[in-house]
Amino acid sequence: MFNSLAFGFPDDPEQNRASSRRLWLLGIPTTLAWAVAGWSGALGLLDGFRLMSLNRVGAWGADAGPAGSLVLFFSLAVTIASSLGFAMLWGGGMSLRRMGISFRASSLAAALGVTLGSGVAAPSWTPPESVGERLPFLDGKAEPWSDVDWVIYYEPFLVPAVSGLIALVLIVVLLRSFLRAAEADDREQALRRCGRQVTGVLTRVDFTNVWVMGNPRFSVHVRFPTETGEREAVTTMITPLFQAPSEGSAVRVRYDPQDPKAVLVEPVSR
Prior knowledge:
Layout: H1 13-53, H2 58-62, H3 64-91, H4 96-121, E1 133-134, E2 143-144, H5 147-153, H6 155-194, E3 196-212, E4 215-226, E5 229-238, E6 250-256, E7 259-267
Antiparallel strand pairs: 1-2, 3-4, 3-6, 4-5, 6-7
């Protein structure tokens, strides 16, 4: 009786294609900026902290000059990469579904860039003076490394490995999102072209306390006539505030008689 549906502002197919092209074009410089951030962050920050953790404190002062320059370079790279990431988020489209894909694409660019940058930097990390034991402090004795020390020792390879694994997971998630979005777009366009159009009535309206691009999102129950009798569906509507739905108001419903789950609900133009 009830179907779980989703509704937002109508997406124009040409605008969707332009948004996808813009998303991929922004993804290239974003990935490169995160690669620079990953390279400079690995050699300018993580390398120094790794040496300090492995008890080579004296190396921090000797490497202060290059490390300080790399930290400034890292800050600049992160600023640029973050700005490009926000551009990807807002440039992928204004609908809720498109923004979700843009967020995943931006996260993928960050993970992939860090993987590339930290991977290139891996051979350049400063080796510790002693492997397997901490250097004695003052007149103390040398102590063997703990399990945590060994993890820190292999940090040059763990950082790109972990970020690469995250990138791989995001690739799978993003591909599934693109496929679902493509299927949803195909169903929506098919309904707009071939769906039966009727006038339905909203029987219940609940505000979800969610705002999308400054517009409220509502959960609505709609009842509409079909050839086999009345049908009722549950969906969400994102409308301008002055077009907020109310119980008893009429809406335009497009449905597929062969697929009970294929329903598109739109506000009636005023």
